[in-house]
Design a protein that fits this description.
The structure is a homodimer. Chain A is α+β, with helices and mostly antiparallel strands. Helices cover about 25% and strands about 30% of the residues of chain A. Chain A has helices spanning about 60-70, 135-150, 165-175, 180-190, and strands at about 10-25, 30-35, 45, 50, 75-85, 95-100, 120, 165, 195-200, 210-215. Chain A is elongated, with a radius of gyration of 19 Å. Strand 1 of chain A pairs antiparallel with strand 1 of chain B, so a sheet runs across the interface. The structure holds a DNA duplex.
DNA sequence: CCAAAAGTGTTTAAACTACACCCATGA
DNA sequence: TCATGGGTGTAGTTTAAACACTTTTGG
């Protein structure tokens, strides 16, 4: 806590924040990766991250990073896990707190300052090995996302404001990796009372579908599945 | 990540680990607190913590801290959350990762080097205000404990190796803060197959009770309730 | 009129809840 | 023998899972 010493010499370390930004991309669950420009892992892909600035909170860093990369303002963000292994970055002692974020399909890999490249990769085909311990981070993030889908409404973060029930179901199926029964799904989801049917419909190639929106676009704990 | 700069000057911070050690004490859920010896919060109670040493991982720090405080070797430990608000410690920038631990009722507040005092407080009557942001930490830890009881066997960390079903049930009731039906509880718990009945019994003031132990004393995800 | 997605109920099985009595022991 | 906690089963209700046909539209 206060900088008094433990048994071993005390550490002054770099503190970083990395962001695992999920998005639905081409019918798959994708994450945003950037190509590392320098250091021991030059050329490998990694989750975008940034060192914490003086006076910045961890969440501010995550938000700042996301804005810079996607331009999107309103993303869901939650702290995930902190990685502090002494050798995770061979150049310096860097303790990194991972956040996970959700962005709607549309505008994801906007621009990537500070990085050679940025791209969304399907989570099932990551360009391994990733830099640092970012594969652990990926596992951790996917686990969290899967489990949290079932008992919260955070899926709104992956969808546009208005969507059809089929689209919603598709997102669930993509992330959970299994087929869901349409009738049971609708019963359950509508039963939460978190969705509001609009009068407008989505017209496409076939029968028009009712559009819905989440009545509250903020994290809420409910049994969704 | 690598120590390249963000928009704001990069930060070299202290990294600490704090441990929220739960134990069952006098029929209540208790946590181990220590009295802060110096700094802006002198005299207040806080969760025990330590700065990370050179070459130490976060988990090592948590383990070291727990050993020093309790002498107990085999405690359940899990990373909880990281607190990095710039002003959480007015003396220095300290980013702290909280762990939560579970120790069996017996030997808890062993010895407290480096601290003026150490004591177990019931979670419902903490000596507020705690130092730093440790009240947030407490809330976070209790939430995690409650939810994790329901779908994992980590409760083993709060019990001695051998225990009766009534003792197990009592732990659940204390932590969840509500009464559980004895018959349903036994059905559910025995249905997990994680308990092994011993031939020995606990003899007390009344009818002897069958002793059980967890067949695996390692974290396992199962529907316990 | 055909293809494709939207929409809708019922039946069955499993899980959860509530509930009351007898048993074994120590004092 | 009495007080105390240990141990057991069932009925009613709720929740989850499986399942197929009709509707609406665009092409």
């Amino acid at each position: 806590m206060a900088p008094t010493s433990g048994q071993t010499p005390q550490l002054h370390a770099y503190v970083a924040v990395d962001v695992v930004l999920f998005t639905i991309d081409g019918g798959e669950l994708g994450v945003l990766l950037v190509k590392v420009r320098d250091g021991a892992f030059t050329g490998r892909w990694a989750f975008p991250g940034s060192l914490v600035g003086v006076g910045e909170s961890l969440e501010q860093v995550a938000t700042r990073e996301l804005r810079a990369l996607t331009g999107v303002e309103d993303v869901y963000l939650e702290q995930l896990c902190t990685f502090g292994d002494p050798n995770r970055d061979p150049q310096a002692r860097v303790v990194s707190t991972a956040y996970f974020g959700l962005a709607p399909a549309a505008g994801t890999p906007h621009r990537a300052p500070r990085y050679a490249e940025a791209a969304v990769f399907p989570i099932r085909r990551l360009p391994v090995p990733l830099a640092y311990d970012h594969e652990d981070m990926a596992v951790c993030a996917v686990d969290r996302l899967r489990s949290k889908l079932a008992y919260s409404n955070i899926v709104y973060g992956l969808l546009p404001v208005e969507f059809t029930l089929s689209e919603l179901q598709e997102v669930y199926e993509i992330i959970l990796g299994r087929h869901l029964d349409r009738r049971n799904f609708r019963k359950k989801i509508l039963g939460t009372g978190l969705l509001k049917a609009l009068t407008r419909q989505r017209r496409g190639a076939h029968r028009p579908a009712t559009l819905y929106r989440f009545s509250r676009r903020r994290p809420t704990m409910v049994e969704m599945l």
